[in-house]
User: What shape does this take?
Amino acid sequence: MKLQSSFFFVCCQPGAEALLKDELAREAPRLRFAFSRPGFVTFKDVDSRPFSPNYDVGSVFARSFGLSIGNCKSDDPVSEVVEHARALREAAGVSLRLHVWERPLHVPGEEPLGFERGRDSTRIEATLRAHEPSLFSDGVEARNDETVLDVIVMEPGAETSPLFVGFHRQSGRHHAFPGGEFPIEIPECMPSRAFIKMEQALRWGRLPLQQKDIAIELGSAPGGSSFALLLRGLEVWGIDPGAMDPVVWTDPRCDKRFHHVKKAFSDLKREDLPKAAQWLALDINGPVRISLPYIEQLVGWFQESLLGCVLTFKINDPKHARHVPEWLETLEELGLKRVKATQLPANKREICVVGLTGKGLLRVSGPKKSSV
Ligand SMILES: C[S@@+](CC[C@H](N)C(=O)[O-])C[C@H]1O[C@@H](n2cnc3c(N)ncnc32)[C@H](O)[C@@H]1O
Assistant: This one.
């Protein structure tokens, strides 16, 4: 088997397929749409040329992507996957990283009662590993340049689900865990699901946070993302007229490092906030045309000390997704670098955007201090 294919798969949030297709029609004209299920879309090359395993669609809405081998068609899909894995391993020359994952069926937070993600993929992964252990390296976290075998459970929960097989060469553009998920330990006292969103954003964005850094969060109530920052040892100033979950003050791990500025942005004054801050987080429920001027104001106030931003941009109207490149450009005009956007697994109708300032880049490249 050659490490190439003229078919390409992309996994996205269920419901985001049209946004993905629209984005790729603009950004990756080589791709012609082939097949779509909620959360999963395949493409072929417009001239049937093969894609290399390094091919990158540079997409905001792609959660994971790679080259297609295809659907398992026999009555024994596990043996069929093993056959593909053998051929791929021979072509790659080393053990494969095995990623078995389920086609995402639900927008986060909208799962039906009793829904349990990962049951089928865990079982199938164990069967594959037991079948021929030497084919696969131990563990699931992919490192750059590894060849990853993607096995996608297409109908999770069905008695026998079809399996789709693909592969990719791991790079900084791919998430390291199966299907673009992030293994996150969820604390019992999490004030809101925004905790998961912030944790995913920090891991995906690889932001060089350090203990005792100061973060400003606009739109902080009830406090999930502030809690994530507090648990990482930061001091957090949350701007929001809404009530915060008391856990941000009472949890001993937060150590009185949370300050609530109980105001709407329009009532905010410079003196309500600390003199310096390293990080800016924003998660308001308004459209991006409202958020951007707020970001501009805050970046201006903290330009001497700011290292970077982690922002949630709402896409309540799918038509707004076309403006993502303009939004990123506006952030670059404000002095942010390495600005990038993605739809994280925990994002609903929204995307996550991160960027670093020149000072932030220096912290990344400078003498190493342990990040949190
Ligand atoms: C999605 S919630 C934020 C969730 C929060 N980040 C968390 O971790 O739980 C959006 C918040 O934005 C706040 N908000 C919206 N517009 C705002 C404004 N102009 N100024 C301050 N807060 C605002 C709302 O009060 C609401 O609490």
Summary: The chain has nine helices and 14 strands. The chain has a mean pLDDT of 94. The domain at 7-180 is CATH 3.30.2130 (VC0802-like). The chain has two domains: 7-180, 194-365.
